[in-house]
Amino acid sequence: MFAKTTRKNALIALVLSFVFFLSACGSKDATLKPGLDLDSLGQQLMTQVEFKDPDLKPLDDKIWNRYVDQVDSSWLNNHLVIAGGGMVAEEICLFEAVDEAKAEEVEKAMKERYEYLKTSFGNYTPEELKNLEAPVLKRVGPYVFSVISAQNEKVETVIDQWIKDQQ
Description:
Blueprint: H1 2-25, H2 38-48, E1 57-58, H3 64-67, E2 76-83, E3 91-97, H4 100-124, E4 136-140, E5 143-148, H5 152-166
Antiparallel strand pairs: 1-2, 2-3, 3-5, 4-5
């Protein structure tokens, strides 16, 4: 009786170990290479997700870091920040950090940004707070993708497909 239970438990442990091994091998983090075209992802988001702000456009390199002042430009290899007039809580911020440790810093900075925006929009246009309830924030290796919109599911789908296409 004891030997039968032990074999059964060993078999279950072996199967679970194999499942965990396979899921680790399929990790997205391990396969994204440096230097990916963030502009292509930005374009896909702009065309596939419905944004209300008609003024959304890529910010110039000279001003993006004043707009997203929570992120230090020295942490980055590449970036794309798409923003509008500031009356609508919508933006696209795509970053390639110099390494995964800096990507963690970028992710943390974007969470701080969300809190800042909640206060700002809460004081002036509280109806925009719904877009800030659960913005899309995804870190994959050295990449950080942050999108504030009213269509989070669609944003997730576009980003996930782009990541899959890059592998």
